[in-house]
Amino acid sequence: MKRVESILLKLVIIQFVFLIIAQWLILYTPLSPYLGKIYEYEGVSRQEKTKTIETIIDR
Questions:
Q1: Which residues contact 26 (CB under 8 A, 6 or more apart)?
Q2: 3 and 10 in contact (C-beta within 8 Å)?
Q3: Where are the beta strands (DSSP E) in the chain?
Q4: Does 17 have pLDDT greater than 60?
Q5: What is the spatial distance between Cα 35 and Cα 31, in angstroms, rounded to a whole number?
Q6: Are 15 and 9 in contact (CB under 8 A)?
Q7: Which residues cross the membrane (predicted)?
Q8: Rounded to whole angstroms, what are the CA distances from 23 to 1, 17, 20, 35, 40?
Q9: pLDDT digits (tens, 9 = 90+) for 21-39
Q10: What is the pTM of this model?
């Protein structure tokens, strides 16, 4: 059982290190515009108003 626990602890530590590295890459490097494209896919970066069509159901 101690062997399984030690392997799990090592995996958690490695996962945490990779999480910190990924966060650093996204926030503090010149690569961040290329890594953070999800904002463009979701349409959050633009503040455009869309035209809406009023229907009978909306009233």
A1: 32, 35, 36
A2: no
A3: none
A4: yes
A5: 6
A6: no
A7: 7-27
A8: 33, 10, 5, 11, 19
A9: 988 887 877 776 676 666 5
A10: 0.52
